[in-house]
Amino acid sequence: MRTVIIVSQIAISTLLIAAILMQNRGSGVSAIFGGGGGAYRTKRGFEKWLHVFTIVLAILFVSVGVINLIIAV
User: Fold this and answer.
1) Residues 12 and 62: beta-carbon distance below 8 Å
2) Predicted model pTM
3) Three-state SS for 63?
């Protein structure tokens, strides 16, 4: 049981690192035309999905860490 939790935590952490690295600030479509300045814009499409996916992965990572801690005691 503990091995499954450790392996799942490693897999979640790898996915979380990849999701964070895929989020490039200022590299949207507007940056292609030189408009990648400090203007506020909303996330759409894949960018929004990636943002939500990163939050879910972070919550899962913390939850699995807490479960691992509880089992270890």
Assistant:
1) no
2) 0.74
3) helix
The amino acid occupying position 18 is: A
CB 62 within 8 A of CB 16: no
Residue 34, sorted as left (phi over 0), alpha (psi -120 to 50) or beta, turns out to be left
Q: CA–CA separation, 26 vs 33, rounded Å?
A: 12
Residues 64 and 54: beta-carbon distance below 8 Å: no
Cβ-proximal residues to 62 (8 Å cutoff; 6+ apart), any chain: none
**pLDDT tens for each residue of the chain, 73 residues long:** 899 999 999 999 999 999 999 987 755 555 555 555 566 677 788 889 999 999 999 999 999 999 999 998 8
Residue 12's CB: how many other CB atoms inside 10 A? 20
